[in-house]
Write a structure and sequence with these properties.
The complex is a heterodimer of chains A (315) and B (548). Chain A has a single domain, classed as MetI-like fold, CATH 1.10.3720. Helices cover 67% and strands 0% of the residues of chain A. Chain B has 21 helices and 20 strands. In chain B, strand 4 and strand 5 form a beta hairpin. The radius of gyration of chain B is 26 Å and the shape is globular. The interface between A and B is large, with 34 and 49 residues.
Amino acid sequence: MMALTSTDMKGPAAMTLAAPEPGRLAPLLAMLWRDKFASCAALILLVTVFAALIGPAFLTEAATTMNLRARNAPPFEMARGLAYILGGDSLGRGILPRIIVATQNTMMIAASAVLSSLVIGTVLGLIAGYRGGWVGDVILRLTDILMSFPSLLLAMVVLYVFDPSIGNVIFVLALTRIPIYLRTTRAEVLEVRTRMFVTAALVAGAGPLRIILRHILPIIAPTLLTIATLDFAFVMLAEASLSFLGLGVQAPEVTWGVMVAEGRNYLANAWWLAFWPGLAITLVTMSLNLLSNWLRVVTDPVQRWRLERRMPSNG
Amino acid sequence: MAEPALLTVENLSVEFHARGKIVQAVRNVSWQVNRGETLAILGESGSGKSVSSSAVMGLIDSPPGHITAGRALFQGQDLLTLTKDERREINGRRIAMIFQDPLAHLNPVYPVGWQVAEAMRVHGVPPSEARARAVALLERVGIPHAAARMNAYPHEFSGGQRQRIMIAMAVAMKPDLLIADEPTTALDVTVQAQILTLLSELRDETGMGLVLITHDLGVVAQHADRMVVMKDGEVVETGRVADVFRAPAHDYTRRLLGAAPGKLPFRVPDEAAELLLEVQGLVKSFHLRGRFLREAAREVRALDGVSFALRKGETLGIVGESGSGKTTLARVLLRLMEPSSGSVRYRGQDVFAMSKEQVFAFRRRVQVVFQDPTASLNPRMTVEEIIGEHWAIHPEALPAEGRRAAVEKLLVQVGLDPAHARRHPHQFSGGQRQRIAIARALSLKPEVILCDEAVSALDVSVQAQVIELLKDIQKQYGLSFIFIAHDLPVVRDFADRVLVMHRGQIVEQGPTGAVFTAPQADYTRTLLAASPKADPTHRPQRRAGERL
C-alpha cells in the first residue's frame, strides 16, 4: 500500500519555485507588458492623470481666450496654431486646451463619485449580506426607495434644493449609484458565505471581520471593480446631463460632459465639438475597463499564469 | 466465441490541445464488447476511461480533441468516420448512453413521460405509440404508478428514480449497446445495488451489450463479465473479471486491488480511555412550511434522539446514506448549528452553554476536514496562508516567527514538499489538496478531528494513502477521529467503533467487528448486503424480479 505514496506526490513538482522575492513592482510591470492592450490602457490613464494634475495650471489661459474668427473652426488646420489643432468651439476657443483643462474636473467628479458609491455600497452590502436580520432588511428597503426614483430626477431635486456646485454634484451622483454596489455585494456575500472555506474558517474560530476581509471580500472584489469601471463612464455622462440642464458644473468651469452637451447643437455642421470630448470619455472608460480586466487576471491565482513568463519546460 | 464482437475499438488514440500543449488522452486503446455481456472499463480519475466511449458516441469536441488513430467497428461500420446523418441514425437507436448525473441530463421544464416518449419520437415512432411505450418502460425500470407520474417533472423524483428514468430513455429504442458512464457514483449504496441489478436484468432481457465505466472495484467485481483496466490513457490489463481479480498480471492492477479497503483486521476499541465528547439525546428538527394555508407546518427531524460518546485516541465511524442526518450531526458537533434539544458535552462542559472565551478554546481543540478539498481551501490564498491562518486566529498557539518553519514541518508530515508552501491550491491534485486540509486541521494540535466524508471524493489508491496518513497522525498524537462516511469498507478498516444512522436515528452502534460480522439492525444488514465487495467470488445470487 505504501508503494503507492509516490503517485499522488508528482504533478507539477518539477517546476522550481519562483526566485527568492525580488521587488514586487518588477514582475507586476512584466505582467502588464505581456498584456499589450492593458499596457496601452495604462499609458492613456497616465497621460490623463498627468493632464488633470498640471493641465489647468498651464492652459487655463489658452482654454478661455476667445477668438471669434475661429468659431467652430474645423480640426487639423495648422494655420491658427497648435491650440486649434482639434478645432475651435462655438465661442472660438481651442478644443484641445479645453479638453486638457476639463480633465481635472471630469476626473475629480467621476472618481470621487464612483469611489464613494463603491465604498459605501460595498460596506452596506457586506453588512446586509453577512449580518442580515432587521439591519439587512432596513438597508435593503432604503435602497429600494432609492432605486424607485429615476436617478436623474433624484439628482435634479437634490441639486434644485441645494446649490449646484461640484461638491453637490459628486454627492448626488454617488448617492444614486450606491444601490448597484450594495445589491451586487449582498448577493455575492450570500453565495460566498456558504462556501466550504468560510465554514472551515468559522470552525477554526475566525471572527466576522477576518472572514469578511480575508475570505469574502477578495472573492467579490473583481466583480465590484469591473462594475466600478463601467460606472465611470455612466457617471461622466450623467454629470454631463446635469450640466446640460444647468444643474451641474457651472461655466466657466468645464468638464468633458459639458463639452459634449454644448457640442450637441452643432452636430450637423461642426461634429468635432462633441466628438473630441466624447472620444476622451470613451478612451478613459475603455482604458479603465481593460486595466481592470488585467487586474482581475493578475489577482486571481488560478488565472495568473496567462500573464506570467512561460516556464521553459515543466514536465 | 463464434459470433463476431458487437463493438470493437482498435488502437484508438485521442489527443487534446490545451494551453498550447498537446495532451494524449488515450493511446493505442483496444477493447471489444459482445452481445449479452458486461464489459467494465476501470480507471481512476484522469486515466482516460471515458474518452474511448465518448469517441464511439462522437462526443469528443473537436477542437480541442482530435482522434489521431484507430477504428471503432460496430457491426462492420467504422463509427469514427460517420457523417452527421449516419451518426444520428446510430446514437440513441443502436447505441445509447447514460451518465453520472441524471439531473443534468434531464430537462427540468418538461415532464419525464414526455421526455421518455421524445427519445422514441425523434426516431420516428408515432406519438401515441411512443406515449404508451413510455408508460411501459417507466413501469419496467421500477417507477411506481408510472402512468400517473408521466406528467411529473424531474425534480419530483429522487436521485435513484431519475437514473431509472434515464435508463428508460436509453433503452427506449432497444439499443444493441448501452454505455453507462459512472451511472451510480452519485447514488447511495442501496440504490446503487438496485440500479446495477436493473441494468443487468435489462441486458439479459434484450441481449444488448453493456459497457460499464467505473472507478469502483466493487461494482466491477459484482456486475461485470470482462474488464479493461486503464491507467494514464493506456490499457494495462484486459481479461475476465474472475481471472483478473484472482491473478492480476499488471503491477498497477495488483496495487489497485491491494488498495481496496476492507481487508484489515478489525480494530478493537479501548473502553478505558478518557471520555472526550458525550452526546445525549440530540434532536434537530426543521419546520417545513405547508403548501398554502391548508397544511400545518410539518416538522422534519434531521436528528432524532442521537446519543453516543467519543473516547480519547479512538476513531468513531458514522455511516449513513444521504438524508440520514449525518451532515446535520457534523454541523451540530462543530457548533455551527444549535440542536432543538439534547446536549453535547466536551470534557464535561456543555458546548452550547459556553462563554465566548470557552467557545474560542473549544475551536482550538476540535477541527474538521471536509469532503471536497477544492471547496474547503480558499483559492486566493497560498498554502502557507491557509495553514497559517489558524495561528493568526489563535496567536497564543504559536509565536509569529516560528510559523514559517511550522508550516514546512506540517507539510512534510502530511507528505508534501515544503518548497510548495507558496503555491495556491489549484496547483495541487485532489489528494494533495486533502493533505493540505489535513495539515490545516493539525496546525493547532487539536484533540478531535471530524472528517466529513473526507476521502469520498478521492480515488481508491489516494484514499488508501490519506487514511494511512490519518492513522499515522492518530498514533503520533493520540488524536480522536469522528469519521463520517457513506462507504462501509473504508470505515471498516479505520474505525474502532461504528455508528449506523438512518433517518436521523442511530439504528445500531458498537465495536466495528461486532457491527460488521453480526449486525443486529435490519437496516445495517441491508447496507452491508448492498455494499459491493471487491471480490467476484462472492456474488450474491440474484433472485428473479428482486427489488431492494
